[in-house]
Write a structure and sequence with these properties.
pantothenate kinase activity; 2 domains; Type_III_PanK; Nucleotidyltransferase, domain 5; 12 strands; potassium; five-stranded mixed β-sheet; ATP-binding; transferase
């Protein structure tokens, strides 16, 4: 079976095509004003599929647009995952948690049921969720992502520059650009490291566009899984989790 999986986040639309259990191809579209123009190219790359499923955090309108495009091209309906508070061994701490956070926790818990985990997604926002070895979600944090923090500093101060390049250090900067760049990365790493210190013997699972950037500055055991949300989608997907 050929399955198209979509992860529609705040910054981009990630996709991958599964041929059975094998990832045949993957990519992403930026959530720019003309992202819809890229959908036909995406559809052309994946050719015919038997099933399409999605994690969508960017609103009902995005689902309707994606569903219409998939229906036109493949003559199938897009199936959307929704959070279940107690599912596949994961019990969420509160109602209303984002489906992407839930799927990432499902995937991390599926990979490792022997240790406590910190699941961190580094995108437009940074989300951090603590999950114990019994699958109990202990709560988490939502803070601005690395890029968003830099944009906020530029937009809300008189003279600080907009820093586009990625940081390569958490050392104190010797100019304004490095002070911003390194400082923002240091803040993100410190949040994760603090929780790893508090929750002894836990493992960090990183995902999201800036996850690879953050990984070298995490002190304890840490894994980077760029497709953790879609791994959770594959694991969780059946009739009970459809929206």
């Amino acid at each position: 079976m050929r399955i198209l999986e979509l992860d529609a986040g705040n910054s981009r639309l990630k996709w991958r095509l599964l041929n059975g259990d094998t990832v045949a191809s993957h990519g992403y579209l930026a959530n720019s004003d003309n992202w819809l123009q890229g959908l036909p190219l995406l559809m052309g790359q994946v050719e015919q599929v038997d099933c399409a499923r999605a994690s969508i955090v960017s609103g009902r309108e995005r689902f309707e647009l994606l569903n219409a495009a998939i229906d036109r091209h493949f003559n199938i309906s897009l199936q959307q995952a929704s959070v279940k508070p107690d599912w596949r061994g994961v019990r969420v701490a509160y109602p209303g948690i984002g489906v992407d956070r839930w799927l990432a926790m499902l995937a991390a818990n599926h990979q490792d049921r022997q240790t406590d985990k910190i699941v961190v997604s580094c995108g437009t926002a940074i989300t951090l969720d603590m999950l114990n070895r019994d699958g109990e979600h202990l709560g988490g944090y939502i803070v601005p992502g690395i890029g968003l923090m830099k944009k906020m500093l530029h937009a809300n101060t008189a003279q600080l520059p907009m820093v586009e390049m990625a940081a390569s250090s958490v050392s104190p900067g010797k100019n304004s650009m490095d002070c911003i760049n390194n400082g923002v990365l240091a803040m993100a790493a410190a949040m994760v490291n603090e929780q790893q210190t508090t929750h002894k013997d836990c493992v960090v699972y990183l995902t999201g566009g800036d996850g690879a950037l953050l990984k070298p500055y995490i002190n304890g055991e840490c894994f980077y899984h760029p497709e953790l949300v879609m791994d959770g989608l594959s694991f969780a997907f059946e009739e009970a989790v459809l929206g």
